[in-house]
Amino acid sequence: MSRETYETYSAEPEKIDLIAFLAEYFQAFRKFFLGVLILVILMGGGSFLTAKLRYQPMYEAYTSFVVGSNRAVGYSYYDNVTAQQLGKTFPYIVTSGVLKDVVARDLQVGAVTSQIEASVMENTNLFTIRVKDSSPDTAYRVLQSVITNYPEVAEYIIGATTLTVVDDSGVPVSPINSQDAVHAGMIGAAAGLAVALLLVFIYVRTRKTIRQADDVKKLTNAAFLGNLPEAKIKKRSNVKEQTITICNPKVPDSFKEAMQLIRTRTEDGLGKADCPVLLVTSSVPGEGKTTVAVNLAEAFAKKKYRVVLLDGDLRNPSVLKCIGLSERKGRGIIGVLKGQISLDEALTDYRDLSLKILPGVGSTQNPAGLLRSARMKTLIEELKEDADLLIIDTPPCGVLSDASLLGGIADSAVLVVHQGTTKDREVQRALEFFEDSQIPVCGYVLNGVPEGATGYGYSTYGGYGYGKYGYGYGKYGYGKEKEGRKSNQSVKE
């Protein structure tokens, strides 16, 4: 694909597939879970310590009393008029600066720092004064001074008054505000989680990753080979078989059926060579290319193809680990290329399938030199003599140039793209690699797709295929397996 086409694609408004976005969001959350946990702990612990260090107990002393007037008026008139006047003026007088100055002189302090509040019961002459302070003794002393000096100040405003106490708290014993540092810590932790979730959302939203097969289709005309769902096996100490391969009975059926579909579509793109050479690669590490290569080899072998799987990633050989076989020291492709062992000694039979594996064991300081050597080309021809299909697991083509060294011997290639992880620019670089190396792209596989999601996974294979390769449709629908090869003659449907 040209740069102009890619820039046009990048400029198009992005349509969000909610299910794919949520799946990618969950993957990102798991990826940054430690960071999320640290942020939650830091904000929760910070809020807890701040609340604990800043906590200052407050004590409240209060008195309720009845205010009376010394004026010679009728009782009913006092109730109806004076009570109303006192109700309006009492809170103002109690909290006024004048009274505070009098109290300060009375207590012989520079200023009254305690909080003084006054309230009145509606339509009565029952009043309450509350004094709050960090010291219980100070709160009570200020309260008593207010009661003592109030009549003197009030006399200038409403005349002479008398206070009759009906309730008194005495010196307060316990603070009115509890130390709730735990609650503050929980609020801080919740805020930290919210911030972390927002940061993960921004991270996922701003990344240009492949979320569905259509995202790759915009970049290339190569065929879509299928979605490969996530396969999980419960690890048990008494179960040795933990490999994610279609030969493992514990692997979900959806994974196996997805590989059958991918094999069927790959088969049609192999060409007419007697023994096609198929490269399986990815743009960056960690996309699952080795898993796809191994399972493709097993799927073709189950169909009676004579298959050779070559581990061509000499820097990071992973085939043996993927299929759960132990490494035989020195018995691999490097030993063969160096002339240390014969090809027959290095080849490993796999189960009861018509599948042989040439592992990438051994050590070398010049893997690129071995791959471009004349001995490598001779080795490929030797492997093709007794095989119907040669699959090579190559290094990521977007990172290393090793895969390009196999360009002259490859008939086609499969590109593995991990859903929600691979960036579109990385896929673009891989496609440019294929174009520069003149390697025909058989198609691409979208790996790591959440099973059963809308548009993804096994439950929707029936409608996701393109053209005649739709699952269950056309000539190459699932279940239309051909008869296996008995020799190295090309047999096509």
Topology:
Elements lengths: L2 H9 L6 H14 L1 H22 L4 E11 L5 H20 L2 H11 L7 E6 L5 E8 L2 H23 L2 E8 L12 H26 L6 H5 L6 E6 L23 H16 L8 E6 L6 H14 L4 E5 L7 H5 L9 H5 L5 H4 L1 E2 L5 E4 L8 H5 L2 H12 L3 E5 L18 E7 L5 H14 L3 E9 L11 H4 L29
Parallel strand pairs: 5-12, 6-10, 6-11, 7-9, 7-10, 11-12
Antiparallel strand pairs: 1-3, 1-4, 2-3, 8-9
Helix pairs in contact: 2-7, 3-7, 4-6, 5-6, 9-10
User: Which percent bin holds the helix content?
Assistant: 40-55%
Tell me which oligomeric state these chains represent. single chain
Radius of gyration: 41 Å
The largest beta-sheet arranges its strands as 5-12-11-6-10-7-9-8
The largest sheet is: 8 strands, mixed
| Proportion of beta-strand residues | 15-25%
Mean pLDDT: 79
Outline type = rod-shaped
The secondary-structure class comes to alpha/beta
| Element-level helix/strand string | HHHEHHEEHEHHEHEHEHHHEEHHEEHEH
By DSSP, the count of extended strands is: 12
Low-confidence stretches: 1-14, 72-79, 453-493
Helical stretch tally: 17
Termini, distance in Å? 31 Å
Descriptive report:
The protein has 493 residues and is an alpha/beta fold. It contains 17 helices and twelve strands. It has helices spanning 3-11, 18-31, 33-54, 75-94, 97-107, 136-158, 181-206, 213-217, 253-268, 289-302, 319-323, 333-337, 343-346, 367-371, 374-385, 424-437, 461-464, and strands at 59-69, 115-120, 126-133, 161-168, 224-229, 277-282, 307-311, 348-349, 355-358, 389-393, 412-418, 441-449. An eight-stranded mixed β-sheet has the order 5-12-11-6-10-7-9-8, sandwiched between helices. A four-stranded antiparallel β-sheet has the order 2-3-1-4, covered by helices on one side. Strand 2 and strand 3 form a beta hairpin. The longest helix is centred in the middle third of the chain and has 26 residues, at 181-206. It starts with a helix and ends in a 29-residue tail after the last helix. The relative contact order is 0.13. Residues 1-14, 72-79 and 453-493 have low confidence and may be disordered.
